[in-house]
Amino acid sequence: MIKEFEKLREEEIEIMLKAPVLVSVLIAGADGTIDKAEVKEAVAIARGKQSRAREQLVDYYKLVGETFEAKFNEMITNFPQKPEERNPMIIAELKRLNRILPKVEKNFAVKFYASLKDLAKKIAEASGGVLGYLSVSYEEAKLMELNMINDPSKF
After folding, report:
1. pLDDT at site 74
2. Which of 3, 82, 104, 126 is deepest in the core (most CB within 10 A)?
3. Tens of pLDDT, residues 67-88
4. Closest listed residue to residue 11, CA positions, set 97, 113, 120
5. Which residue from 117, 108, 125 is spatially nearest to 55, judged by alpha carbons?
6. In whole angstroms, what is the distance from residue 107 CA to residue 111 CA?
7. Can you tell me the distance from the alpha carbon of 149 to that of 127, in angstroms, rounded to the nearest whole number?
8. What is the DSSP-derived secondary structure letter of residue 114?
């Protein structure tokens, strides 16, 4: 158990652990297709964060990394295929973080939020473009700032 989660209920912990998967599917599928490069990038980022995340998040990402790929594939299979149907569901889940993040230690919440935004940006840049440039679609760009999540540094 991560010490920052001690004040959280079980379902709140589950949302915290699912957040990187939600962000990954939201961004990867924003343009209507989740391509292999985006899947590969999402899994690679999640694995990389297990050792290279901000120090306070290493244990969190180790826990997330244990089930990331399985949860990612499960979400792709079980959620609607069309982004106009899938995205509102994912956004609603991510909005639940607005009630959870104020309950965790502020420094952790700020780093967690920054990490999710970094994940969104890397996945958005994972496919297309010329040598990786100009590869963020309009749909991805609208979502990758994660405006549905309140910035914890401001509360």
Report:
1. 92
2. 126
3. 998 999 899 899 998 999 999 9
4. 97
5. 108
6. 6
7. 25
8. H
